User: Fold these one by one.
Assistant:
Number 1:
Amino acid sequence: MTDTWQTIARLAGRLEDHSTLPREQRILLQLLKIQVEPRIASIADFRAASRRPRVSALTRWR
């Protein structure tokens, strides 16, 4: 488990080092991303459990 967190910390550091955005903007974007992820996961779970999951955009309606 320690190796995993070390890898995550190393990757986060590399992203920070190469970002051209101001620190405040990076933090705001990270918070927005964290907020969106559970919503996307819950929608996917709902669709998977639904009797009529959303039809693919490739499906043609007649």
Number 2:
Amino acid sequence: MFSDALQFLINLIFSLFGIALIVRAWLYAIRMHPFNPYSQAILKLTDWLVRPLQKVLGTGNRIDWPTLLTCWLTAFALLILSFVVGTGQLPPTSSLLPAALAALLSVFKWAFNVVLWITLVQAILSWVNPLAPIMPVLHTMTAPLLEPIRRILPNLGGLDLSPLVLIVVAQLAMMFIQQFTRSAFGI
């Protein structure tokens, strides 16, 4: 029972940190102002690990490679630590390459999870409190994903189904990634 609780806490902490890194990379990609209070919170939470890699790698024009690498390293560390807690020993070296690939799939799963939750929160707030202070941030984050869907869907007047479509696509992508990860790596 203790190892299950420890496994849960490790998964929770590493996943939340990985999700914060995904949000950081997303904020960089959409050019969210760094002095926004929400951006500041994410930067302060993740800077301690991303900043050293930024000095070595630098950042791309639209892609924050150091943050994405840090996110992958977080997922890789999660898998290795989960193996150690579950078995009580280090994984064999032959399983490091599959773990590295599984970590990449975990990053994609976290990214789709972020898309799902940000879209869901934005949709609910648009009904409950459309003037909430976080709404402009959510709108800026989801607009690049929702606009292509809105161009395809028919105009239903005041009813926007694009968030629903995006949530379904994100959920399907997470299911596919989970199934692929389970069948390929047994995770």
Number 3:
Amino acid sequence: MKLESLIEGRLIKRYKRFLADVELLDGTQVTAHCPNTGSMKHCAEPGSRVWLLDSGNPKRKYPLGWELVEIDQLHLCCINTGRANHLIREAIENGVISELQGYSSIRQEVKYGENSRIDLLLEDEHKPKAYVEIKNLTLLEEDNWGSFPDAVTTRGAKHLVELMSMVEQGHRAVMVFCVPHEGIKRARPADQIDPKYGQLLREAAQAGVEVLAYGASLTESEVRISHPVPVFL
């Protein structure tokens, strides 16, 4: 995924979940939209280098959107959770995610379960449907561990229950963690933050839900899913 003409600055603060104040390189201070509903633990430290994308829409109250951050002056990370589905779909179509090859069609946001929509539905007349749920994982901890979630997620738990239901109905169900963070080398549930989610994720895996994680290569103009990340449950 190309991210053209990003605008560099320094983070002043992130607040009210959806807003971030940034000082641009020329000293101008702007307020940008923050497209991330999580806690963004370790991803929103004041003074960090950040990159913003101009929507080009002057009618928007906040035309600039926060896309990238540099963690600890070492690692680039994409904080825009709205990119995850596109990144994973792009990786499937490019053959990067080997476990999800061989399907003739991919549909997005298909209704299923109890008033939910699956992120991706992979279909082929010669194999069971594959229901693919995608979560963005950006919480870096010691020793290059990445953990999910970074805040308690009842919605995420609901999705796991629905994936298990798909397995019971004879379909394939896959939980994919999109890891657009250069510092994360292995993934696990964040039991210290949401122990119920961690327990449910393990139950889902035992019930037949496949759990995958894929990392990304990042530059200041591109984010691309490039490699599997081992998951430890």
Number 4:
Amino acid sequence: MLNWNIMRGKTVRKNILSYITRNHSGSWVVSIEERCNAFKINLMNGLSIIFDAKGRHVKTNL
């Protein structure tokens, strides 16, 4: 589940949100970090999901 308070002022691609709801539907998003050409999404279960600037999944870290 996405904490919409985290989303205020952020622009996150629709396909990133779709990926998270499809593949990690029971997890809570703790934070969203925007870097130069990437997004890092941290989940409450300890996973970090990295996406490129176009919103494509790059990797998942523990």
